[in-house]
Amino acid sequence: MAGTWDQNAGLKAASPIAVKVEEVALRWLLDVLKLPSTAAGAFVTGATMANFTSLAAARHAVLAKVGWDVESNGLFGAPPITVIVGEEAHPTLFRSLSMLGLGHQRVVKVPVDDQGRMIASQLPEINGPTIICTQAGNVNSGGFDPIGEVCAKAHAAGAWVHVDGAFGLWASATPNRAHLAAGVGDADSWATDGHKWLNVPYDSGLAFIRDPESLRSALRLTAAYLPESTSREPSQFTPELSRRARGIEVWAALRSLGRSGIADLVERNCQYATRFAEGLSAAGYTILNDVVLNQVVVSFGNDESNRRVIAGIQQEGTSWCGPTHWRGQSAMRISVSSWATTAEDVEQSLAAMLEVAEEVRVP
Hints:
- By secondary structure, the chain is of the alpha/beta class.
- The protein has helices at residues 2-5, 16-32, 47-64, 70-73, 91-99, 147-156, 212-219, 247-282, 303-316, 343-360, and strands at 40-44, 82-86, 108-110, 130-135, 160-164, 189-193, 205-209, 286-287, 295-299, 322-326, 329-335.
């Protein structure tokens, strides 16, 4: 419906209903994700642009504190910004930093533990404009950085904390997993993706900023031909002016599922991941991560065994799993995130994986 309707959600004058639907959806999202109710939100293309949008607000805020208007003056001659990340930050975060002129080679990397979680005690001394990028849901292990602890140290020194929570942020939506996201609400910005656990179509990234004015200032658009309004204009909070009404699908999914439906969806997927891990482990294969969310990393032996098993599983076709390289070794990564996955699907997929592994792996 959203595609056929073809509404431009950038301006209230262009589509009042699209703007209103997005406002409602953003309010519901802040509620279900346990984020500050006064935070600003933006619908963007995906998790990469959600990180970009959040970090644009962060760049504005930390430089404004030292009297520099980066939107007017750019980064030429600006006070340097220190960017701190965990050693296993997602590649799209580095892409966002590059596009913002903050560079991906000049970041300070904090050591991580055996689950890819930032070690807060290893944070460097914080001086001057600083942005710390944390992770809610490591792409391999599903592990969460100790975000509350990081926020306490960062805010004491005046730094901005961003959370890359492409799928992990949704742990807050279910009582059984919310403890993983402890302290996430203390951060200054958050990025996630509706197409993952909310299962809406692609092109549904979400950015949230604690201080709405930081987001508006970073992305403010002024044009004489555009109508002015005293109400919220989405184009003032996203990198785009004209864009599709992404919020319609998100609103529909939230309206259909409700809090209990979202919690059930997330919890079922996490339980299915645990079942995969238990079945593969019982067959003698090595589970490399603590399965706390929906991610499973499994090794079938050496590199050649992993390569052959993954290729065999993909060719067999019951399910699809891809390769990864984590903690110094190759492995197969399982990520369970579809609303349509059933317990029967899991058992069929697990049986197929074990059969393929038995046939093709190197002894």
